[in-house]
Design goal:
Elements lengths: L3 H14 L4 H8 L3 H9 L9 H8 L3 H6 L5 H11 L13 H7 L5 H11 L6 H7 L5 H9 L8 H7 L5 H12 L8 H4 L7 H9 L6 H16 L2
Length: about 230
């Protein structure tokens, strides 16, 4: 698994070996000294687009630079391809999901969106999507939700996921509840983020498409809002 602190420590060693100050390295890379300090401490990671410049400054290969973070084989391939501008979306396998999740904080949303659309062809477990959702845009989330497996979903998992979902993504999950694929009790987690489903829940119960107990969830939600003065 890629270790951002080991990567940062390696940059620090290279800089010192080259007898450069953080300010001098920052000037070479058109960055601030504070940015270099954060990289070296492992508090942040350089934009993918400048990794080749970093490697050039120290006269090492891109592979050597990325390897300093001790990535898995697939993480290394993904990172190097990202730096070189290669489109991996059509080549990603389901087995790559954990690697993408691990390095997601290092990649731009636009790049992750392309990867997500590639992964959507294979289908991923909803628990993996929880780890990716905060890094990708809603269009990519929608693609993943459409072909995801929901065996592991529960209220706790949805509670972690839903703050990162847009309207289209929430609609997909709600539709699966209406179709009976997911537990109606998940509505309890959805209401604070999607009050517009309120009349749809009532209508679904009226037409027999949803368990009558879903109405109790609505009433409990109303009562709680009244208690809090909302």
């Amino acid at each position: 698994m890629f270790d951002i602190r080991k990567f940062g420590a390696y940059i620090s060693r290279l800089r010192k070996k080259a007898d450069m100050t953080q300010s001098e390295l920052a000037e070479r890379l058109n960055l601030t000294r504070q940015a270099i300090s954060k990289y070296e401490c492992g508090d942040s990671f350089p934009d993918i687009s400048i990794l080749i410049e970093v490697a050039d400054v120290f006269g090492i290969t891109l592979d050597e630079l990325i390897s300093s973070g001790h990535p898995t084989e697939k993480e290394a391939v993904i990172l190097e391809s990202a730096v070189e501008g290669q489109d991996l979306s059509s080549e990603l396998e389901k087995q790559c999901i954990s690697d993408i999740v691990n390095i997601a904080p290092l990649l731009k949303p636009s790049l992750l969106d392309k990867m997500a659309k590639g992964l959507s062809k294979h289908g991923i477990d909803i628990s993996s999507l929880v780890s990716l959702a905060e890094y990708i845009n809603d269009d990519a989330v929608v693609k993943l939700l459409e072909n995801a497996t929901y065996d592991t979903i529960n209220e706790n998992l949805l509670e972690r996921l839903i703050p990162f979902l847009g309207g289209n993504s929430i609609s997909i999950i709600f539709q699966k509840i209406l179709e009976g694929d997911l537990d109606y009790r998940l509505i309890r987690i959805m209401l604070p983020y999607a009050e517009y489903i309120y009349p749809q829940v009532e209508a679904a119960v009226l037409y027999g498409d949803l368990n009558e107990k879903a109405l109790h969830i609505l009433r409990e939600y109303e009562a709680e809002n009244d208690r809090l003065g909302k």
